[in-house]
User: Fold this.
Amino acid sequence: MIRLEKKGGKMNSRSIFIIALIVAVAVAAPAWAQGQAQPAAAPAAQPGAAPPAGGAAAAAAAMKAPFPPFHIIGNIYYVGSSGIACYIITTAAGDVLLDTGYDDMAPQIEGNIKALGFKLSDVKILINSHAHTDHGGGLAALKSATGAKLVAMAQDAPYLESGGHNDVLFHDQNLFPPVKVDRVIHDGDTVKLGGVTLRAYLTPGHTPGTTTWTMTTTDKGKSYNVVFLGSVVAVPTNKLFDRPDSPATYPGIKADFDHAFAVVKGLPCDVFLASNGSFFDMQKKHDALLKGADPNPFIDPAGYQAYVARSEVNYQRIVQSQQGECDRACLIMTTNIYLAGLVAHDPSIVKFAPDVKFVENTVPMKPGEGLWKTASAIPTTFKIYVPDTVAQEIGFLGVMEENNRPIEFALRLKLRNGQIVEAEHLIARNLNETSLVNLVVPRKAFTTQVPPDQQTPRDEMLKIGASYYEALVSADANNAPFADDCVRRENGIQTTSNPPPAAPGFGTLGALGCAAQLHTHTFDYIKRIEPRRVEIADPETGLVFGLSQFRHPMEEKEVKIVGVPGVDHVDMSRFKPFDLPAAHIYKVSGGKIHEIEAMGFTMPYNSKTGWE
Ligand SMILES: [Zn+2]
Assistant:
């Protein structure tokens, strides 16, 4: 039932409906055979990725490898190793040292400070990103070498003072020399020295007191916001949920991580620095700086946002894998990760259940096949999500690219215990300009909430979605609650409520509304719609997601049209039988269907759906 219509509502001699059928039949060849594989893109780098081969000792040694100290920007200097970042912040009244690396790195850090021409005795204050051995292990040594005072976040201070005993993640495995905290601070507190102010933000989760430090610095006459990001790395061994058989890493860790991401996403950042060099591409930026890069490569607001976003995706994946139930945000995040995985050609990014069932355009496949090989760009502006927390399913409709050509993509994911157990792709290819012009952004109704007093209970929404198919095959609009303003689009093409034609005729059909069009019997060639799978609804947005297969035996040579001046029938004699697998999204508000966004593609008559 996909139709083609010339923009502007002016119809030529044949009805939009007939043109559409010609187009539909012309593309009836198995569409999934079109896309050929192309080289796989590199998967997105994950923060907290696996350490280099050779075990923990080799990984630590690689992190500790010496790195020449250098001036970063303004009054900030790098005195860390290849992997572990440590900073000197100079002021008129002495210096601040942020982090020290491992205990056995102390001579290295001291050497780096001196190599830059600074005196150890000028270091007045020690601060810390978090109380782990690789960032605070050397605090005791540096404290005695410099005589500086240690300032630490309240939640991490006990771990510094106990030398890492009872660490929430490592327990007693990563001990370091204990160090006395001279000043305990709290979220938002500042450290001031010689006219320089550092503000501490509590960004917990990695440790209970992980601290992100911020300041402004002036370089070449310009002022910059600097962020020293404390680690926001979640690892799979973090237990984010507190369960009787599996207690949380520490009480409230998930709320802490959620808070940390909310905070770091909101920090103004020009100069992006962090507790580990790899987080902000330290070596690459250092090399560029030495070659005279201008502007200073450490000025990298986009890099900051990208790193935070990647870290949050990493975190959400862990949340998702650990929570039995996926909430709305989790379902949407799962979809986004899935889409990113498709374009990276890397199913390992996605948490599939071992017995996942995956079907693309009615053909059962394995993850890694089909669009997993051909996707070339993720959906950008046309995206409609229908998360259903009750069904643990999400329906999605988007416009993305396959082999660099636009496709309309319907996706259904079903989760069980946070793993994807069913994945279903429907792909409409060969979109023309008439389609694409309406597939740039979704109609507003598909991205906005329904006011609470207009929301419909989920069960009722599912019935309303299913009623549409009944209305079609019965040619009786009374079988579905169409609103007067109902507008339908199919593969982007508006198929109802178009401007009326200058002269009555076939064009009049396309000018009718959702209900009135049904009464003309124009859809009588749709003999069966089966199966009808309507199991996803989101009361908040009023969206219902339905999958179905339209069956057209095309046994009758004409369809009789009722109530359209100048049109008494449509000639069907040239059309062969065909199926149309389709996805529909209905906007339901006040118990009525206000918008329909559909996509579909043709298949041989009486095809299987892949879900038998
Ligand atoms: Zn750490």
Remarks:
- The domain at 328-445 is CATH 3.10.450.50 (Nuclear Transport Factor 2; Chain: A,).
- The radius of gyration is 30 Å.
